[in-house]
Amino acid sequence: MKLHFLGKGAAFYPAFGNTNAWFEYDNDLYFLDFGESSFEKVVRTIDLKKYRQIYVLLTHLHADHAGSLASFMSYTSIVLGLHVKVVHPVDTVVQLLSIMGISKSFYDYLPALPADCPVTARPVPVRHADDMKTFGYVISAGDDCFYFSGDSAELPADIRDAFLTGQIQNIYHDTASHHSPSHCHYETLEAVIPAEKRRDFYCMHLDADIVDLLRSKGFSVVETDD
Q1: What are the pLDDT digits (tens) for 192-218?
Q2: What count of Cα atoms within 13 Å lies in the side-chain half-sphere of residue 134?
Q3: What pairs with residue 144 in β-bridges?
């Protein structure tokens, strides 16, 4: 699975765009979050009608992760005649879309990917916001397995252990330049990820242009397609 990024920035660093990503597998399209800047990029760059099914997996509902989801549901349903499946462990996304005028007839809500889906996405509760449940995902398909943190103040110990033993091949993780109770400072990651494993550890959701700094420490940094 190749993960494509629409952006790599934090909410307050719009120069890098919202950290939302997508991949395709077995003729299906999967989005990881769908923030404020995603709709325009997706409509401009992706041929949505060539896929059998489209899924949107949400880590949480902050605007930089779900801000243009309502526009996407309207567009895919009304303009393209597609029925997108929105996946989130809690049904608060249904309330959000309803407030924005999007009824459930526009999409399918699922708490998890269907059992017959060739991709599995195990939600991992993470620490980010006191007033909202937030999740990362361990995503597997075939022989590939990666972890996508969403917004997270820390790397869960079991995810780190699975990465170090090769069960998880790549990690894509929230990486901040400032200490915060909501996001993960790069020094925290530096302390728990050995130098020899940092090439497979991808920093994302950057709150400043610290790309060169992170690379100097051996970490990879996600790249956007445009």
Answers
A1: 999 999 999 999 999 999 999 999 999
A2: 22
A3: 141
